[in-house]
Amino acid sequence: MKMSMTRKQWYLSGFVAFTCLAATAAIAGPIENYAPVTQQRLENPEPGNWMLYRRTYDGQGYSPLDQITADNVKNLTPVWTFATGVVEGHEAPPIVNNGVMFVATPMGQVIAINAKTGDEYWRYKRQLPDDLFQLHPTSRGVGLWEDKLYLATTDDHVVALDAKTGKVVWDTKVQDYKKGQYMTLMPLIVDGKVIVGGSGGEFGVRGYVAAYDAKDGKELWRTYTIPGEGEPGHDTWQGDDWKNGGGSAWMTGNYDKDTKTVYWGVGNAAPWPGEMHPGDNLYTSSVLALDPNNGKIKTYHQYHQNDSWDWDEVEAPMLIDLQRDGRNIKSLVHPGRDAIFWVLERTPTKINYVAGWPFVATDVWKGIDAESGKPIVDPDHKPVVGKRVEFCPSLWGGKDWPSAAYSQKTGLVYVPANENFCGGFTGEKVPLKPGELWLGTKPEDIGLKAKPGADHFGELQAWDPATGKKVWQHNFPKSQLFGSVTATAGDLIFAGGTNDRNFRAFNAKTGELLWEQKTNSGIMGMPVSYEIDGTQYIAIQSGWGVDAQRIQDALVTNNIGIEANVPQGGVVWVFALKK
């Protein structure tokens, strides 16, 4: 279940970090010759930099660097490490701009580091309120624009920092954290607009996506993910259900620079049992196509209607140009939390359903309507009030927020999936109290279990989105897989995500495990690749916590009996080939 350490507990727990190299402590001095970030650079990033959440606006998580290959990755070795000084889940990619690395961590911290040497330039640490209850105390990174950084905070502010010094330039309140509103995402920057979305669906909030002026923090527009009275889609709600209907937008969107469209994922409806909010419940469990200039909804696709399983679909779909069924398709590809691998077509005015298939076993869907793209629900596995209902996969789904990747060399999509996990709960009507969890069930009633006879749980899968065929699969017998994956032009797939603390490299064509390195903690974060002075580096944050730890406690240890002591504590690891 989604519970969290309090701030006081963090301080009392202390911090222990293991590194095989000494963590750097030297101060690198002032940042000189910082390269301002422009729209042109974001749209056409240099191969050696990683300046967006998934490196490029299309969200593919692909690096064109190819110095490190399937033939020589066995020679990959740590070159420096850096302890962040805090615990809990470290989920942000290290962001690199011309030799400067920016690392966001839990506790509202940003560290600027020399990406070649590991020396610290500066450190910003936000003073968080003592009464802040952080359901997901993490950060997924900082956005870059001109000479500033932008951080979305768990006490629901957007903060602009001077990239050279770390000093606060402006600080804008977005919502009220005391009502359960908070943010964990990396802001998306488009044409000087800082675009964010809020978390808090489990608190009965009304989700939104909002944009702020990068210069002064002024709010430019706000689009609610649940339409209000008189807006298209409002009729998919009954009564006042829309006012507290969830629909959080807590992951970074992707951007089509040709059509100037932002694609943003939207979370589940609240509370969980669908009969407590009858109707399709637009735009929950959907992808929205937004105009970044004014926030207008151009079109949408709802992955599944009347969500009852806590299946957020907040990871934005990847933008991939496919050859499928004899025609070119500008696609949106999304391996969903609802266990369906979605292939959609993006057009200027509409998102069309193309294909969908289960990538892990599910008993919730009987199929997908070929015309509408709506999944057909098996009512026996849809939670209701007053009766316990079981379903597969579990509430963490076939794939949670950790990102899939697409290789432009192989044409394959690589999915960090979880198989053989099931769940269930009894729906219960409870009154909404601002700032308190509002799930529609008792937290202690949520059951997680493994399928009888299951011989593995995590799966790294490779799919051909043009044909719908699985090309290879690597199984993890004793662990979930809860970490993002990254593809490189060296025919490699990098991934952490397991309870054994290993960071791994796989052959992108065959799935063969080629290299692994034990780290200080478990890895939830996103691997990145960058280049300085002709050397290619691979970087990752190791730091276990949040949902990966909750899965470990609730299912892998307590239910299956697989013990795994995964120590917490954040460390940035950077690797290169032995010289």
UniProtKB/TrEMBL annotation:
Keyword terms: Calcium, Metal-binding, Oxidoreductase, PQQ, Signal
Binding site for Ca(2+): E202, N268, D310
Signal peptide: 1-28
Required co-factors: Ca(2+); pyrroloquinoline quinone
Residue sites binding pyrroloquinoline quinone per the record: E91, R140, T184
Molecular function, one GO term: oxidoreductase activity, acting on CH-OH group of donors
Pfam family, one: PQQ
Entry GO terms, CC: membrane
Cofactor-binding details, from the entry: Binds 1 Ca(2+) ion per subunit.
Active site: D310
Domain of life the protein comes from: Bacteria
Matches recorded under InterPro entries: ADHI, PQQ_b-propeller_rpt, PQQ_MeOH/EtOH_DH, PQQ_rpt_dom, Quinoprotein_ADH-like_sf
Pyrrolo-quinoline quinone repeat domain segment(s): 50-347, 481-538
SUPFAM superfamilies noted in UniProt: Quinoprotein alcohol dehydrogenase-like
Transmembrane segments: none
CDD domains for this protein: PQQ_ADH_I
Family: Belongs to the bacterial PQQ dehydrogenase family.
UniProt-recorded name of the protein: PQQ-dependent dehydrogenase, methanol/ethanol family
Source organism of this protein record: Bradyrhizobium betae
